[in-house]
Structure formats: C-alpha cells, structure tokens
C-alpha cells in the first residue's frame, strides 16, 4: 500500500506542476501579466529539473508592456495585424504539458514547401509586442523605436499627413519581408516597396495605396525593392528630422513606409451577414490591434498563408515588362493570356501582370473570360475593363464598371459554348477597334483571364480564345505531374491541333508568341478552406452593398431594407425589353413573366438606338417579352440589379422595385433586362442579419421570402443513422 500511495502522490505533484506551468504560459499575453504575478507566489513545490528552452524564451518575452503607457500610443495600428507563418514540425508527438519549443534560428520563409503553412496553434509561436521587446515576423524582426514606431496626427502633420489620426512607421532593410493581414493603407516615404508584382515608389503627393488582405486569399508579402536606379526620396528637411526622431538607425538603403488602417465598409462583412466567412476580419479590438487584422500575440482563427511567388513567376513578369516602355512599337504592345487549371494561382498571376504593366502604361485592358470567378464583377459576365490603378486584394474588394460587357447569367460555359465564344469575340473586336490604338501615343495592353476548365470541351473553348485573341505571351500555370492522387490514371492529353476549329494564326503579325510554363503558387490550404461557392457568395453580396461613386461599402442594412428604385416596364417606358435566357427559358409564357422576374437577379443592358428602331419597324416590339428571343448582339451590360417586387398594372405595364449599386447616371442608359435562372441571390442575401441572432438558432428564417423551411413527414426522409458500435470488427 505504501508504494501505491507514493505513486498517487507523484501523480498529484506532476498534475499541479503542469497546471501551474500552463498558467505561466498564458501569462505571456500582456493582459494576463497579473495572473503570472499571482501564480509566482504559489506555495506548490516546483520541480528542481533545469528549465527548458521555452521557459527562457518566456522570461524574455513576458515583459510587461508598461512602456506603452508612458507617453506612447497604446495600440499601434499596423504591426499588430501581422501574421507569422510557421511550419509544422514533422514527427513530433503531442504532449499537453510540453508545448513545442520556439526555435529562434528557424526561418519560416526560407522553406520551399509552404503548402501547409499556417499559424501555430500554440501561443508560444508569437512574442508579445511590448515597448522593450522584439517580435519575430518572418524575416522581419520588429524592434520598437529602432525599425518601427507609432506616430500620431500631430507628428504626421509635419510631413503634410495630418489627416491620418495614427499610423505605424516601418523600416525594412534589404532582404527583410513583412506579412500583414487586414485592411490598411501604405505610403512609401523612402526606397521602393514590392507587393503584388509591382513596386511602390515615394511621391511628393504621398500617394496612398489601399491593400485588402483577408484570410480568404493568400496574404501579400511586403519586401524592399531591388532598384537599379533608386528614386529620389520624397522627404524634405522636416521629414528627415521627423524620421530621425522616430528611428535610431536609418540608412539610405532602407525602405521606409507608413501603414495605417482604413475601413471603407468592407470590414462589415464580419458577423452574421455571411456566416461562412464571418472571421476573415478580426471581430474584436485589443491593445495591439488594427481594424480587421490579427494581433501578433494571438492565434488567428482561420488558416492563413503568405503569397509566396515562385522564381518562375518573377521571370515571367520580367519577360512581360521587357517589351514595354516609352519607345515600344505599336505591334509590341503585350497581349497576355493566362491559363491553367483551378487552384494554381491563375487569377493571382493575372493581377500581378496587370500591376506590372501599369508601371509602364497609364491604362491596361482586362478581358474577363472566367464566368465562375470574375475579377471586377460577380460571375456570369464576359466583359472588358479599363484599369488605371494597381489592385491589391481579392476580387470582391475592387469592383469596377465595365467598358463593355455581355451577361450570360451562368457560372459555366457548358450550357452556352457558342454564346460564350461569340461574346469573347465581340469583346476582342471592341478592344482592337476602340481601345488598343485609340491613342497612338498611349497604346493599351491587354490581360486575358481564362477559365479553369481545361479538359474536353473546356480545352476546345480555350484554344478558340487563343486563336481569336492572338496573344503575344501565353502563360501556362500547370500542376506538376505527380500531383494526381495515387491509384488514379492520368487523363489523356488533349491535342488541340486536331480540333475542328478554323486554322487561324495565333499571333497576328510578325511577332513571335512567347510561351511560358510556370509552376503553381503555394497557397493551396487557403483555397481548400473556402469553396468557390463561398467566394461567389461574397462577391455577389459585396457587389450589391457597394457604392461605385466613392468606392465604399455599407453592410449596416440588409438588402430587404435598402430603398429601391421604382422603374416602369412597358413598350413606351424607360425599360421596354425583357430577355429570358438559359435552360428552360423558352417555355416561360408571357403571362408568367411576373413570376419569372420577382425576386430574381437580372442584368441591365443598353440597347443601341438603331437596333431598337429596326425592331419597331419590323413589328417585333409589340410586347416587352417574346418567347425565345435572344438579347441583341451589340447590347452592353451595365450591371446587375435585384428585382425585389413586381406590380402588374393594366395595359401590360409593370412597376419594378430594383436594388442596384449603379449610379443614376448609369441607370438612365438601361433599356432592357436579361434574366437567367442559373444565378440566384444567396439565402444570406434574403435574410435580415440584424434579427438572426446566433447562427445555429437561425432566428427569423420563417420570414425569408421565397424560402420554404417547413418539414414534410414521409417514410425515408429522416437522416440515416449508422450505429458503428454494433458493427462487427473489420467491417
């Protein structure tokens, strides 16, 4: 019995030691410094074994942030949102009483394998950002008042930036990288800053660049640019004195920039508006936090990955920019076609190519051929956009008004391949005749973003797009040969040369086509976290809550409470044509038009006057709707609208209540409506998120229009239950 009592006493002693150590580990957060002081006086005996390495790191980083309160700003707005990627250690067994050690010599950014990069689940992977402490963030080691500092409006007023209430002044040395998640602005003061394929340079106007880095996509990496001819610093004598007062170690080769938070309303996506992405922005504020970002001493709630570009991407971007410049010939204007399967970073590389070309051109054209994941509008549209500023964020953060577009109303060209190719052909004609050489002194290059369907009919459509566009650069981002799961045979290669397509030269003129094959980017875990349906939902709802006039968002009110436009639909009204397209649209009778339009998403189109006049002369405009009628080929899609209510009036007149982000100047051009039932408003867009409460309870779902949640009792409708505890072994 004495041996048993001894074992019980040893087990009790070990559990007390483990729990005491856990409290001390939690005290590494500044908000728990008092808890550590309390536990240090605990009379429970502590083991006499030497403290492991993690304990030494704990003592170094547990400095109380008292230095923050003595005259300094209490919450730096930028560095707190930094996400530190950490690589998992293979082969280590789990132990709740012995968390993983923090190896100071490990560099997470130096590894080539970043497919499973994610913030560590243990708080040991993050160091407290105190006044006298340092923080390992990738290759950038932040040391307050040495290479970063917090500045307020009075200090920023000395360099003409007094309108900024608070900012973080960051200094990066050559070779350092900084990864920051959230919504923030960047102003470069000295040197050059590389981000998203472009280099941001200082300017006398202190140009500010908005950056959106939610966890739905890979987090961009900030790094100093390697410039052959460094730009002249935009700092005057007062600004140099300002930097000298903030930093103790400043060298000419350093890159210095300001980071400060911005909220154009997109942070309103958090909460119950779209529950599947409720945590892409940080919902709470803390002592070291930036709006929408993650404190460096806490674990982000979602898996995040940095945007790490392979070396082949950098070579391809340099090849694209090598043929442009002030003395470039008209026939050397790039037409870049980006293709590849899903999930390889095709759209990301297209954005980086756009930013790279904007370094040499005032405008760049963008041809969107991906119906499922459009860049500047919700899916279902083939369009041509004119972009005059670099973009730093996912598609839902930068919607734009198209230069010319056509609405197909589906997320895949499988059901309408002929209409798909015809729409792309018309967009290319518009580019060649109206955009590319409209201004001889400032020609406009073109970026073509293709779909991720590259097999079977998708390969045929892709080859047709290459034939029609005549690109100067074809960028093929393909997965490695060994990426296919074992046990499955590889699909046979599709030979596009044998397809029954008219043989046209791929490159129009004497120019050679530059074909580059690139490796995929390493951010697959982010794409696995959010599905394509999630991203389409975000894009669609963010579009309807957007204000194109000042490029802001307002999610405070649901769509069902936004005051709508009331428009008359009749043969003599501002809207006089309705076109129903898609599968099954031919069977909709004119008397059922009200039911077909109510609660639907439609496209507002502009019809040329000559087409309208010709239709009236032929007697085709006797009714607003004719079964089986297709939209005019030269119609222009202005944008999308949600028809919230339809009122039938005498003599074939309808009153439509529409919710749309388009401005009145654009709305007055609308003359027709195009409707395809393949794209509907998501369920979350029909709900009042102010009354739903917590998501599991789904309060108010009975009030959702066009949604029936009643249960029907029948045999076989219950969920199948499997009792695995009653099964035999090895079954």
TrEMBL record:
Q: List this protein's GO terms for biological process.
A: cleavage in ITS2 between 5.8S rRNA and LSU-rRNA of tricistronic rRNA transcript (SSU-rRNA, 5.8S rRNA, LSU-rRNA)
Q: What range(s) does the Clp1 P-loop domain occupy? A: 340-479
Q: Where is the composition biased (Acidic residues)?
A: 101-110
Where is the sequence biased in composition, kind Low complexity? 1-19, 37-50
* A single GO cellular-component term on record: nucleus
Domain of life of the organism encoding this protein? Eukaryota
The keyword Kinase is annotated on this UniProt entry: yes
Region Disordered, residue ranges: 1-129
The GO terms this record gives for MF are: ATP binding; polynucleotide 5'-hydroxyl-kinase activity
Task: List the biased-composition ranges (Polar residues).
Answer: 20-36, 58-67, 111-121
Q: Which Pfam families match?
A: CLP1_P
* UniProt keyword Transferase present: yes
The record's keywords, sorted A to Z, are: ATP-binding, Kinase, Nucleotide-binding, Transferase
The protein's matches in InterPro entries, at most eight in alphabetical order, are given as: Clp1/Grc3, CLP1_P, P-loop_NTPase
Homology family: Belongs to the Clp1 family. NOL9/GRC3 subfamily.
Which protein, by its recorded name, is this?
Polynucleotide 5'-hydroxyl-kinase GRC3
Organism from which the protein derives? Tremella mesenterica
């Amino acid at each position: 019995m004495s041996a048993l009592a001894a074992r019980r006493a040893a087990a009790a002693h070990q559990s007390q030691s483990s729990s005491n150590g856990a409290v001390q580990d939690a005290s590494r957060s500044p908000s728990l410094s008092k808890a550590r002081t309390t536990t240090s006086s605990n009379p429970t005996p502590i083991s006499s074994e030497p403290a492991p390495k993690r304990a030494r790191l704990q003592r170094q980083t547990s400095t109380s942030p008292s230095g923050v309160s003595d005259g300094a700003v209490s919450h730096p707005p930028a560095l707190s949102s930094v996400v530190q990627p950490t690589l998992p250690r293979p082969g280590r067994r789990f132990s709740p009483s012995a968390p993983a050690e923090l190896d100071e010599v490990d560099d997470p950014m130096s590894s080539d394998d970043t497919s499973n990069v994610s913030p560590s689940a243990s708080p040991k992977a993050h160091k407290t950002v105190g006044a006298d402490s340092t923080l390992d963030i990738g290759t950038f080691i932040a040391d307050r008042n040495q290479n970063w500092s917090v500045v307020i409006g009075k200090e920023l007023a000395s360099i003409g930036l007094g309108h900024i209430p608070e900012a973080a002044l960051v200094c990066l040395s050559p070779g350092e990288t900084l990864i920051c998640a959230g919504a923030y602005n960047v102003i470069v003061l000295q040197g050059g800053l590389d981000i998203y394929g472009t280099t941001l340079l200082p300017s006398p106007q202190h140009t500010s660049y908005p950056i959106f880095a939610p966890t739905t996509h890979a987090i961009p990496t900030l790094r100093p640019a390697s410039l052959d001819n460094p730009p002249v610093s935009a700092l005057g004598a007062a600004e140099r004195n300002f930097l000298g007062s903030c930093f103790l170690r400043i060298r000419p080769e350093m890159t210095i920039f300001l980071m400060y938070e911005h909220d154009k309303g997109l942070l309103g996506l958090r909460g119950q508006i779209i529950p599947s992405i409720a945590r892409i922005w940080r919902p709470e504020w803390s002592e070291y936090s930036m709006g929408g970002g993650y404190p460096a001493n806490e674990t982000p709630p979602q898996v995040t990955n940095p945007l790490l570009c392979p070396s082949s991407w950098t070579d391809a971007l340099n090849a694209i920019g090598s043929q442009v410049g002030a003395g470039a010939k008209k026939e050397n204007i790039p037409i870049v076609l980006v293709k590849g399967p899903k999930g390889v970073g095709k759209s990301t590389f297209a954005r980086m190519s756009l930013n790279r070309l904007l370094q040499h051109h005032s405008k760049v054209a963008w041809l969107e051929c991906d119906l499922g994941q459009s860049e500047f509008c919700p899916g279902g549209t083939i369009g041509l956009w004119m972009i005059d500023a670099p973009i730093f964020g996912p598609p839902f953060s930068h919607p734009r008004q198209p230069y010319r577009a056509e609405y197909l109303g589906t997320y895949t060209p499988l059901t309408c391949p002929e209409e798909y190719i015809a729409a792309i052909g018309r967009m290319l004609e518009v580019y060649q005749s109206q955009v590319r050489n409209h201004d001889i002194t400032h020609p406009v290059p073109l970026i073509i973003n293709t779909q991720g369907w590259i097999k079977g009919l998708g390969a045929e459509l892709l080859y047709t797009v290459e034939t029609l566009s005549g690109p100067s650069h074809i960028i093929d981002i393909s997965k490695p040969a060994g990426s296919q799961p074992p046990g499955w045979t590889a699909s046979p290669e599709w030979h596009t040369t044998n397809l029954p397509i008219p043989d046209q030269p791929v490159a129009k003129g004497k120019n050679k086509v530059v074909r580059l094959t690139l490796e995929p980017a390493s951010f697959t875990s982010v794409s696995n976290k959010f599905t394509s349906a999630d991203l389409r939902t975000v894009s669609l709802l963010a579009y309807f809550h957007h204000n194109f006039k000042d490029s802001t968002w307002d999610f405070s009110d649901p769509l069902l409470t936004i005051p709508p436009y009331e428009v008359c639909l009749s043969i003599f009204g501002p809207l006089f044509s309705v076109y129903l397209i898609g599968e099954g649209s031919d069977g909709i009778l004119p008397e059922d038009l009200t039911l077909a339009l109510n609660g639907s998403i439609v496209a507002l189109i502009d019809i040329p006057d000559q087409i309208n006049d010709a239709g009236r002369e032929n007697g085709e405009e006797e009714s607003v709707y004719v079964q089986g009628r297709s939209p005019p080929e030269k119609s222009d899609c202005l944008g999308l609208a949600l028809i919230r209510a339809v009122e039938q009036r005498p003599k074939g007149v309808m009153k439509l209540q529409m919710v749309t982000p388009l401005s009145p100047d654009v709305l007055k051009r609308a003359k027709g409506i195009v409707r395809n039932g393949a794209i509907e408003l998501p369920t979350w867009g029909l709900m009042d998120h102010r009354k739903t409460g917590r998501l599991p309870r789904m309060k108010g779902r009975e009030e959702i229009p066009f949604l029936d949640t009643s249960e029907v009792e029948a045999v076989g409708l219950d969920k199948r239950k499997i009792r695995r505890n009653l099964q035999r072994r090895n079954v």
